[in-house]
Amino acid sequence: MNKIVLVCTLSLTAFTSAKDSSWFSGRIVYRKEFKTLTGEDISSKLAPVLGAENLYYVSGNNYKMYTEKKQLLELYNSQANTLQFFMNGQAMPPADAATGTSGAVVTPLKQTATIAGYSCQSLRVVNEDISTVYYYSPKVRVNPELFTKHQLGGWYTYLKASNGALPLRFTVTNSKQGFVMTSEATSVQAMELPASEFVVDAPAR
Question: Residue 72 pairs with which residues in a beta bridge?
Answer without folding.
Answer: 66
